[in-house]
């Protein structure tokens, strides 16, 4: 049973995942549907499996591209959650940070006539600063005033949501869609409707940045002093202070990086996957990304896999609901079940250890 | 106008207060409870469902569904709280993360079930349960919702139990020094479990009160962070019941006062979005000024481990 210990980090999330899919399957069966057909429809909606029929100018690759567009912000958002978790902080203001980043970069770049070579990097930069600033504010409130970061995050989420809604409805509203006006193609991080071989595709440029971000977070956490300090503060704040680490500065930095990654998620979501902002609604992705980070063990490579999975469930929900006749919200139930079982990781580990210990004892006898 | 501000402020502050009392029970026993938001939502869902079903039996005029809704909301909240309690007390999950997880699950489940039940049982494609209008009681020549009176009574009982009974003493001891409680031969896990259940019942009562007073219906609109507001209130109240009431009243009057201001000034409706942020901004400010001097229960959020010293 040595291999169990060795691959514990992989086995436990897989167990959590299987448990949650089983429970989800039972729920679906209770609703009178075939769970496997529902799961297959989720994959079809994400362009992983072929659909029965396609509208003109669309193919499986079109769906896959659209899925990649959806997956990109999920990676950033989950990395954001993970970096904060590493330092023992729980950033649930991801959706608020996404919104602020998307809104400020829409206003500054999206509604201007800046050329695309400058506009696209500028959007990324502004989003990093805007998201990071909100993150840093939460970190500062935490260490300076000892305010629980979850409570301040939620408060900021609501405040930002209403402020952005106010400005959109006063100055930037599109009278027909009731959303904010669409941003210019030059500033968008997705090349929309690219024609190729008779089909149209949305090419997600942000995906490249997301892959770099995964490598970057992995590098910072594993190979740099900052990464070590983040981990130390997360494991034991007092011990870290004794060791001479500036705990306040480290927490602030962790929240800044976390917010900046959430900002990038906002950029690729509001100026990539979409081209406008729906006021008074926070992106559900901000909460889904918590599931991704927990399922992926806050490890960048784990997040790559976990975000793929959760994105399939999120993205495929529309097609699933139209073909299986179930509500699209069912996918949020599946995602929250995954969350629930991922939160019991300690218990699963405990059970595994108990089982292996028993086995060992029996062998020794 | 002052009359309106006080009346509306109270209808908002009292449910917030009773939910905060639930939070105090849970946190004084040592279990961090960010799940209040989800507990009040599920409680309101169960209560609203009971009310809708009973209204079909007894007719729209009967007030029975209203009182049944309050009861069922408390039951539903209790039942759902057992999930948080189970995971935190027995499965040793991270309490902060688990609280948020429980909330997310609550939002997803109630949304799916509300739609599903509406379609399958009532044959209407709707995402909310429409509740009847609650009767008003007239007390001191003011009309109040019955739930306000019930909440005041419940709050007094909760105060008595927490500060004047053996159970309350043990509960508070669990949050500060669970090892001492254990040494005295009392089951820490059991006390913490029941404390979380109490928070579920009280949150459920709060949830259905919000459902009746805000929109006379149940929908996903119930999740607007009131659970988190009540947590802020109890932190501001230093985990004590009476100071927490003050905080809740401040929130309530800030909210109703803001609305009255917008109406009196005749501003366009977009400005009500700005007024909406008042309670949240106030929460942050209060926390900035009061968090430093507060003392959370010493063992709050720690998983109780018998072998640990």
Write up this protein.
By secondary structure, chain A is mostly helical. Chain A folds into 2 domains: 1-46 and 316-365, no CATH class; 55-306, ABC transporter involved in vitamin B12 uptake, BtuC. Chain A has helices at 2-6, 8-30, 35-45, 60-86, 94-110, 116-145, 149-172, 206-223, 225-235, 237-242, 247-273, 285-295, 300-315, 317-324, 330-343, 345-364; strands at residues 190-196, 199-204. In chain A, helix 5 crosses helix 11 (247-273) and helix 9 crosses helix 11. Helix content of chain B is 72%, strand content 3%. In chain B, helix 2 packs antiparallel against helix 3 and helix 3 packs antiparallel against helix 8 (188-215). Chain B starts with a helix and ends in a 19-residue tail after the last helix. The model of chain B has no long low-confidence stretch (mean pLDDT 89). Chain A binds chain B through residues 31, 90, 92, 141, 145-148, 150-152, 154-159, 162-163, 165-166, 169-170, 280, 287, 290-291, 294, 327, 329-330, 332-333, 335-337, 339-340, 343-344, 346-347, 350, and chain B through 34, 87, 91-94, 96-102, 104-105, 107-109, 111-112, 115-116, 224-225, 228, 231-232, 235, 270-271, 273-274, 276-277, 280-281, 283-284, 287-288, 291-292, 294.
